[in-house]
Amino acid sequence: MKNKIGVLVMSYGTPENMEGIESYYTHIRRGNKPTEEQLKELTDRYEAIVGGVFPLRENTDRQVRTLQDTLNVDPRSADLEFVCYQGLKHAAPYIEDGVEQMVQDGIKEAVGIVLAPHYSTMSVGSYVKRAQAKADELGLQISFVESYHMHPKLIEAFADRVSAKLNQFEEAGADRDSVRVLFSAHSLPERILSVGDPYQEQLLETSKAVAERAGVKKWQFTWQSAGRTAEPWLGPDILDTLQTLNKEEQVEDVLVAPVGFVSDHLEVLYDLDIEAKSIAKEMDMRLERIDSLNSDPLYMEALSDSVITLIGL
């Protein structure tokens, strides 16, 4: 009988349906219900995405299933059986639920990994903290992959997508080398920089590696989806970056590569595909986005290899 290793696959989470948006938003706000105006704004964003919220949740479920399959076909894991469990930050099954289910299933050893390649104390760090606390409470041995932002297969997967979109620009008559590539990620409060958080540095490392592999001539990094709080967040925001490129450099073709995201999240499908595209259109600027990784085999292999390497196989 093969030794079972539990893999807690963690991500931000999304509501399962339109009716779940309020409770989801309330959890994000630490138990404080949103105002009617705030709730309407978020609901409108989900409704604006083709298909509503359902594809978002189904996509995460598929990533977990595909990772389990990928782990179990790796030759290094021949004597093991990997079983993946989902743990979400702001929706059920919560991170703690995933840990508890592993223990109920008799798992003795586990690995945690987040569907986000770049480490920050405010993002991946918070997932790890919650999972570790529950594991300690239940006596489960668990270790964590904290980042995999420079895994060769992750870089290859992103670079392939950048190259494919640049080919489309070229086919449409644009000068490939003149297309401005904007690498982006979810902004975080500026205070992370004062504590030496590696988030920004890791994102720049990924962006540089992807640009080099894809032969990108002109690229820069920008932020997106900042929270609406009183404290300053990392910038510039992509909407401001687009305005600057239009006014100061007369850039006509832009390709956005949101390397901070690995799935078709709300921040990709709305903030980029609807909001940023609308701003670009107003300026007669062509804006395209690379396809998300989702369950891409190379991405699944990057995750799988990170897990298998961590346990020393």
Distance between the termini: 18 Å
Average per-residue pLDDT, rounded, comes to 96
If classified by CATH, what would the architecture of the largest domain be?
3-Layer(aba) Sandwich
Shape annotation: globular
Helix content: 40-55%
Instruction: Report the C-alpha radius of gyration, rounded.
Output: 20 Å
SS strand fraction:
15-25%
CATH topology tier name of the largest domain: Rossmann fold
Please identify the structural class as seen in this structure: alpha/beta
Number of domains: 2
The total beta strand count reads 8
Enumerate the strands of the largest sheet in spatial order, edge to edge or round the barrel: 2-1-3-4
Which CATH C-level class of the largest domain is it? Answer: Alpha Beta
